Write the structure tokens for this entry.
Amino acid sequence: MPSRLSDADLAAHIAEGAGEILNGIRHGDLLDGRLVGDAGDMLAQAWIATVLRLHRPYDAVLSEEAEDVGDRATTSRVWIIDPLDGTSEYSMGTDNWAVHVALTVDGVPEASAVSLPAQGEVFRSDTVDEVTGPLTHCLAVSRYGHSYHSAAVADRLNLSAVRIGSAGAKAMAVVRGDADAYVHSGGQYEWDNCAPVGVALAAGLHCSRIDGRDIVYNNPQPYMPDFVICRSEIADDVLDALASPW
């Protein structure tokens, strides 16, 4: 029978539990490189799938590491999961990787959790604080540096680049107040940003496609070309820079 856990509690418990599994896989450096990444993806996915099958047997699931569960085209409630966001960072032994768990209802994140297990943090859409305080004048970017669009935003708004590994870690840097924006235009999938966007929206941040359109999830093809997460105070300036980056 489905459990009595709320959707928000279940999302948070899954994100935290998968993080504990992933930390355990790295224990003692018994595995390294690609082996630790492969084991992390496989075991975290297996555990999450089992938990959702037990606690939400009637919901559909979209995950990076498995075939769809249920018919996403006819189901209002769809869980969008990334068991290990930032596999390369995880494999290299860094702290910048995450677990993403989100329930969407009619394409909108309803309950989201992002765990940064190596940093001991879990961000929940039902408890996250609103982002306030002074702007940092920083922009979260890939560890490889700027994209064309992020460089345009940084130049126009005079933001310093902060290199961070995974998508979840970059998004949570904005939620935490360590950066003012995260602009992505290099292509992702819905599992890469659904839970981070759900948490960011709950924290009062602006989230949209780079042309300002709303982000809609559970599309037939889950490719997500671009998006922006930023402080609401600078959202208009960020979108203006993205509209005419040259």
